[in-house]
Predict the structure.
Amino acid sequence: MSEKESLLVLVGPTASGKSALALELAERLGGEIISADSVQVYRRFDIGSGKPTSAERARVPHHLIDVAEPTEPMDAARWAELADAAIAGVRQRGRVPIVCGGTFLWVRALLLGLVPAPPADEAIRARHRATAESSGRAALHAALSQVDPVAARRLAPNDFVRVSRALEVYELTGQPLSTWHEGHGFRQRRHEARLVGLKWEPEALAARIAARARAMFEAGLVDEVRGLLQAGYAECRAMGSVGYRQVADALAEGRADEGALLAEVVRATRVFARRQRTWLRDEAVTWLDPDAARSFAG
């Protein structure tokens, strides 16, 4: 694959400025943006996912946003297929595809493929859901720690979908998911890519995270979540994401202190941002100083 055909992929933790940089580069390079965000793919999950505004979408074409109903399954493999098609379409139009988003498992699936682990088993997943409902999600995470401590350290206790999947793979095969990952090795590149991110000092990123969360609350995040719950989307995968989960839990428990809820969302987002940085630790990322990013030539 030639250098001209390589992908520009903007990565980095939440609130680091990926989307703004993607817009600037797309306008400068004649590009279109492919979103790599596991919540933005869903319709009606708007404020809490930080979807680009209608004005931003008018500036630059965006792909893989609002492509699925909240109840529709969307995993890394399916997203990678859609992303392949979007990238091909952008190139056929003579434009530059720019992948941008914080769901790094999906980015890895696009660039390196996925582990050929066994397919889903609905009976096992139903049992896991029952355990989570009766004993809490932490109980599932504790069970995973016993059989696959490597995966457990990587996954948050509240990440039911991925914790359940890791347990499912072990129950079906007798091998930890982390062992499957090691065997795969992610050596066959599906796309050549240049990964670029904005590097902030921890204090500056924390301030940006707090400002982002405040803006979402001011834009009506609580009302958005209330409407989604009333529409029957309480158990949808996107509702388990940072921000949505905390607000949904507060509404279910009748907690009305919005200031305390905002602080809870900020804390959860900072934890998520640390996990995102951990994901990227072993990746070959070109980290840009935010002040110098405007001069980046792509």
